[in-house]
Amino acid sequence: MKIVAYIKEAIEELKKVQWLSRKQTINYTIAVFALSAGVAIFFMVMDLGLNKGLDYIIK
């Protein structure tokens, strides 16, 4: 049974993984959200500025 062997091997490999602690996971999640929000705000400001500049040039 290749499927059973595959599942057993996968479980053994997962036991070797060093999982992050709860605190690390929370900290990394917060960092990702903060960075994503920062990038979104940056592009929003750039978009607004470029639109205003283009409107000024066209008019």
TrEMBL record:
Its main location: membrane. The chain crosses the membrane at residues 25-46. GO terms for molecular function: protein transmembrane transporter activity. Keywords: Cell membrane, Membrane, Protein transport, Translocation, Transmembrane, Transmembrane helix, Transport. It is a single-pass membrane protein. InterPro entries: SecE_bac (IPR005807), SecE_sf (IPR038379), Translocase_SecE/Sec61-g (IPR001901). One of its GO terms (cellular component) is plasma membrane. GO terms for biological process: intracellular protein transmembrane transport; protein secretion; protein targeting; protein transport by the Sec complex. Pfam families: SecE. The keyword Protein transport applies. It is found in: Cell membrane; Membrane. Belongs to the SecE/SEC61-gamma family. Essential subunit of the Sec protein translocation channel SecYEG. Clamps together the 2 halves of SecY. May contact the channel plug during translocation. Component of the Sec protein translocase complex. Heterotrimer consisting of SecY, SecE and SecG subunits. The heterotrimers can form oligomers, although 1 heterotrimer is thought to be able to translocate proteins. Interacts with the ribosome. Interacts with SecDF, and other proteins may be involved. Interacts with SecA. This is Protein translocase subunit SecE.
